[in-house]
Amino acid sequence: MRRKLVAGNWKMHGSLAENEALLSGILAGMGGVKADVAVCVPFPYLAQVQAKLTGSAIRWGAQNMSQQARGAYTGEVSAAMLKDFACTYVLVGHSERRAIYGESDELVAEKFAAAQAAGMTPILCVGETLREREGCITEAVVSRQMDAVIAKCGVAALARAVVAYEPVWAIGTGVTASPDQAQAVHAYIRAKVRELDAAVADGLIIQYGGSMKANNAVELLGQPDIDGGLIGGAALNAEEFLAICRAG
Ligand code: PEP
C-alpha cells in the first residue's frame, strides 16, 4: 500500500517572518493528517526550516541542486550541502528549471543521480506543455523524460525516488488537469515502469502537480494512481495546504 505524499514547493517565495508564521500554522494543524508531508524551500531558509521542523512529522527539502559534487561552480549548491541541512527531498527537473534555465533531460538525470548518491530522495518532475498535449505527444514527452533517468540510473533507482507528474499548462495557471486526465498519465507512467520492474512500479509514489487546491484535491487524490501532490501556490497558505494534506 503506497502512502500519500503531499509536498509544498514554495518556489521563490517567503521571508524569515513569513516562513515562521506559515510553518507554525502547518504544525498546529497536523492532527488528523495521514499523508506524509514535506516542504521544499529556498536554499537560504533551509537552516530555519530544519530548526523549526526537526522532531515534527514534516520533512523538508530543496527545489534544485547542482549535478556537481564541489568546485568552481559559482552560485551552485551541492547535494552534500543540502544533506548538511538534513534535507530528505530535492526537486529535480521542475518545469520552471527546464523551461527558464534550459535544463535538459540528461542534466536532470545527472542531478537525480547526484541526489541519490548523497542519500536524498529526488522528486523527479515530468510533464508536457500545452502545445505537446495538443499535439498528442504527452506520453512520448513523459516517456522521454523518464527514460533519461532510467538510462543513467537504472529502473531500480526509482525505488528510492518520487515522480511528480506536472502538466506544464496546469502549473500556476489555475487550470487543473481533470482527475481522468491526470489518472491516465499516472497510469501510463506506472505501466511504463512495470514493463521493467513490477515491484518498483507498485511501490512508486507518483504525485500530481498543477494548480492542486483544497477544492480539487479530494477528487485528484482519490484516483488509483495518484499518490499525492506537489503543491505550489496553495502551499503558501497554511489552511489551504493542510486541507490538501487532509485530503491525502
Ligand atoms: C509547482 O510549482 O510544482 C506547482 C504545482 O505549482 P502550482 O500548484 O502553483 O500550480
Please supply descriptive tags for the structure shown above.
TIM Barrel, eight-stranded parallel β-barrel, globular, binds phosphoenolpyruvate
Describe, in plain words, how this protein is organized in 3D:
The protein is of the alpha/beta class. Helices cover 43% and strands 15% of the residues. The chain has a single domain (5-247), classed as Aldolase class I (TIM Barrel). The chain has an eight-stranded parallel beta barrel with strand order 1-2-3-4-5-6-7-8, surrounded by six helices. Helix 5 (105-117) packs across helix 7 (138-153). The two termini are 13 Å apart. The model has no long low-confidence stretch (mean pLDDT 98). Bound molecules: phosphoenolpyruvate.
Spell out the CATH superfamily: Aldolase class I
Large-scale geometry: globular
How many beta-strand segments? 8
CATH top-level class: Alpha Beta
Q: What small molecules are bound in this structure? A: phosphoenolpyruvate
Low-confidence stretches: none
Q: Biggest β-sheet: count, sense, barrel?
A: 8 strands, parallel, barrel
C-alpha Rg (nearest Å): 17 Å
- Give the CATH topology: TIM Barrel
- Classify the beta-strand content into a percent band: 15-25%
State the separation between the terminal residues, measured CA to CA: 13 Å
In which range does the helix fraction lie? 40-55%
Overall pLDDT metric = 98
The total of helices stands at 11
Structural class: alpha/beta
Instruction: Tell me the number of structural domains.
Output: 1
* Strand line-up across the major sheet: 1-2-3-4-5-6-7-8
Order of helices and strands: EHEHEHEHHEHHEHHEHEH
CATH architecture: Alpha-Beta Barrel
